[in-house]
Amino acid sequence: MSGASPLVWAGAAAAVLGVLLLRRAWGLPRRSAALNGAAWALLLVGAALGIAGNGAWGAAMVSLFGMGVAALLLAQAAAASRPGKTRASDRKAHMLPAKGEPRRIGRRLLTFLVTVPLAMLTSLLAALAARSLAGLGGWAEADGNGLTLLLLPLLWGILAFALLMMPRRRTQFAWLLLPTAASLGLIWIGGAA
Question: Membrane as a keyword (predicted)?
Answer without folding.
Answer: yes
